[in-house]
Amino acid sequence: MNSEDVSVSALEKIIERDPAIASKVLRTANSSFYGCKDIPTLGRAMSVLGLNTVRSLIVSVTFQQMSSEQGQCPSFDRFASWRHSIAVAIGAKMIAKMKMPMKAEELYSAGILHDVGLLVFDRFAGQELDHAIKHAFNKNIPLVEAEQEVMGCNHCEIGAKVGEKWGLPDRMTRAMAYHVCPGKDDTCFDTTCIIALAEGLATQFGFPNNSPEGAYKIDPSVEQRLAVTEQEMILIGRIMHEEVKRAQESFQLAA
Fold first, then answer.
1. Is 230 exposed, middle or buried (0-12, 13-18, 19+ CB in 10 A)?
2. Nearest to 113 by CA among 39, 199, 3
3. pLDDT below 70 — which residues of the chain?
4. What CA–CA distance (Å, rounded) separates 203 from 213?
5. Which of 207, 206, 198 is CA-nearest to residue 180?
6. Integer CA distances (angstroms), 40 to 9, 21, 57, 134, in order
């Protein structure tokens, strides 16, 4: 999809190989939200949705598949992590629509993947992650700080490496790397701020990611940079709850 000469027909041939993704694209295109029905083919569905929306759907389905795999860390709550990532993605998309609408879908994908490093830890360093989570709760500190103290690295660094390996756009990989410290991003500060604010709001509105309640604080410089009002934040929180519930129903997941 990053190719400049990508064609709908070529994408259709790739997507149709994965039934989960293909059905998600078709179901979304035929939903009342898009005002369409009786769209029988992937090619037509992609024409209706647009490639940016299709990209977001693919990322969502793939992330859900990754989240459902068996991990190695007994204290890591994958369902909570999935809900958190969906909430951050929704918040990022809403903030982007207000501040930089052309990047809304890309930032939705960045929100979905911002904590993908945790899934890597869960799969390949389960004992170390288990120690870090317990350390975070014992000291009432953000998980990212506990990871650094326990393992000498954190899921943001690992997530950014994954993003680079996958060939994701620079804005996405830098958001994955710096969403807990956006001031260190000297290249994509504005878009990283959006992910940082979305994560803070997701945590505040009841979607934390394996960290103690109240341990994550929104950087004041982020709020100042984006100038999102309190009323807008409340609206974002309400829609987060609605869309996370809808996503759970779509993937047939239960708490």
1. exposed
2. 199
3. 32-36, 250-255
4. 8
5. 198
6. 15, 15, 18, 49
SS3 (DSSP) at 167: coil
Do 127 and 72 contact (CB within 8 A), yes or no? yes
108 close to 129: Cβ distance less than 8 angstroms: no
Q: 252 φ, ψ to 5°?
A: 55, 50
* Amino acid at site 243: E
Joined tokens for residue 146:
């506990």
Q: Could you tell me if 180 and 144 are in contact, meaning their C-beta atoms sit under 8 angstroms apart?
A: yes
Residues 121, 134: Cα–Cα separation, whole Å: 15
Give the C-alpha separation, 245 to 228, whole Å. Answer: 24
Interval 125-165: pLDDT, tens: 999 999 999 999 999 999 999 999 999 999 999 999 999 98
Euclidean distance between CA atoms 59 and 47, whole angstroms? 18
